[in-house]
Design a protein that fits this description.
Elements lengths: L1 H12 L4 H16 L4 H12 L6 H14 L2 H13 L5 H17 L2 H18 L4 H12 L9 H10 L3 H7 L1 H22 L9 H26 L5 H19 L5 H34 L2 H12 L3 H18 L2 H18 L4 H15 L7 H10 L3 H8 L3 H13 L2 H10 L2
Helix pairs in contact: 1-2, 2-14, 3-14, 4-13, 4-14, 5-6, 5-12, 6-7, 6-8, 6-11, 6-12, 7-8, 7-19, 8-19, 8-20, 9-17, 9-18, 10-22, 11-21, 12-13, 14-17, 15-17, 16-17, 16-18, 17-18, 18-21, 19-20
């Protein structure tokens, strides 16, 4: 197995795509060391992506792309401004509330950062906010996308861990709103410290007008979450329904989409989906090799030899995931680590639904940490500032995210209460 890991890390550090590192190292090991026929390897890769729940992946990606291109983000932002812009540090609170709403549509942090983030950072700069503060709160609030359902990383986790995606989605509600609350407390503290006032006067007529304009967009989370809660949709069908509704908004209600734009959005979706599924397929092969060579058993025994206490095991895994998140893309990390860590979780008596939320939150924090934090690169480009300045701007906003991570690790009911109520 030393051969497998050495080849994997050498190839990965050489700068090739992650799926080539995964599939290439696995293929070299199975062909030259284990002597497994190549057709078995191809079967394992194909089997890794032959899953009905994975059909949700392209549709959630398409839905997020459509929302960003159909003028929906502007309506959400205007409604959030009318709702909380009157508070001290108003646009900071707007940033968080806008991300909470958009999280119910996109399912990814990068879509939030690249879509709403462009509007939010410009508006905060125009109102005299410090650029570092604007970039920091935008980065932190973007992590709400994969926590508040729907969530693309949770779909991947559910497939890899054979866990209910509906329950994983439900488990994200409380942590997501805790994250939003902690961020808003941070904004209020910052506004008090720096003497930042209100950005506008609260007016019922403005709130009503912006709400009416945003109602069709606000229906999207209701369609997705309500449909799954009442048993009308599976997660995959909910993703399809979200796409259909986004198309109705873009072409009929708002008339902000053209056929040319839709073609471009479709091509972008196909490209992103292909990259995700190639990683999942290659990681399935890698995970199968780890399982058949009993590496997962050895990891389980090693961790359990340190302690049988679920809390201690979770904290050790948190440290591992935070480190991995600094160097590896979210989907790849989930696909590689779930087969390794899931046996440990099950042996320790930890609910896989709780672990799924913990894992996703860890990896969302990883999106905000160098050297591979994708959100950092996106916002550095959006704000037109150096990467190192972006890192410094985001650092203070890791505190509320880490606080929520500790809470959901120590108190399982924060993640499990809603799934138990909805799926009892």
């Amino acid at each position: 197995m030393t051969f497998l890991f050495v080849v994997f890390f050498v190839v990965l550090l050489s700068g090739v795509p992650i799926f080539i590192a995964l599939a290439g190292s696995s293929l070299l090991y199975t062909h030259f060391i284990a002597g497994i026929p190549d057709f078995v390897i191809l079967h394992r890769i194909a089997g890794g992506i032959d899953s009905f729940p994975l059909l949700a992946v392209p549709f959630f990606i398409l839905a997020g792309n459509l929302m960003n291109s159909a003028g929906i983000t502007n309506r959400i932002y205007d409604f959030a401004v009318a709702g909380v812009g009157w508070m001290h540090g108003g646009l900071g609170h707007v940033n968080v509330v806008g991300s909470v709403i958009f999280a119910g549509m996109s399912g990814t942090a990068v879509a939030d950062a690249g879509g709403l983030g462009t509007i939010e950072i410009k508006a905060m700069r125009d109102h005299g906010y410090d650029t570092n503060f604007a970039v920091g709160i935008t980065a932190a609030s973007s992590t709400l996308g994969p926590i508040i359902p729907p969530s693309l990383p949770m779909v991947i986790f559910g497939v890899m861990a054979n866990t209910s995606i509906g329950q994983l989605f439900a488990a994200g509600f409380v942590p997501g709103f805790l994250m939003a609350g902690f961020m808003m407390v941070h904004v209020a503290w910052y506004a008090h410290r720096h003497g930042i006032g209100r950005d506008q006067i609260f007016r019922w007529d403005v709130l009503g007008r912006t709400f009416v304009r945003a109602v069709p967009a606000l229906m999207t989370p209701g369609i997705i979450i309500g449909g799954m809660t009442f048993g009308w949709f599976t997660p995959t069908e909910a993703a399809i329904a979200a796409c259909a509704w986004a198309i109705v908004l873009g072409f009929i209600l708002y008339r902000s989409l053209s056929v040319k734009q839709f073609y471009k959005i479709s091509m972008d979706t196909i490209e992103t989906t292909a990259a995700v599924l190639m990683i999942v397929g290659a990681a399935s092969l890698f995970g199968w090799v780890l399982t058949t060579t009993r590496v997962t058993e050895q990891v389980t025994m090693a961790l359990l030899s340190v302690s049988n206490d679920p809390l201690i095991i979770l904290f050790m895994i948190n440290i591992l995931l935070l480190i991995v998140g600094c160097f590896m893309e979210t989907i790849a990390a989930i696909s590689i680590l779930v087969p390794v860590l899931l046996p440990v979780i099950l042996k320790a008596g930890i609910d896989p639904v709780q672990f799924g939320v913990i894992m996703v939150l860890n990896l969302m924090i990883g999106l905000l940490t160098p050297p591979v934090g994708i959100v950092l690169f996106v916002l550095a480009r959006v704000a037109n500032i150096p990467f190192d300045r972006t890192v410094k701007a985001v650092a203070p906003f890791l505190i509320p995210l880490l606080a929520v991570l500790v809470l959901i690790t120590v108190f399982p009911e924060l993640t499990l209460a809603v799934p138990k109520y909805l799926y009892r």
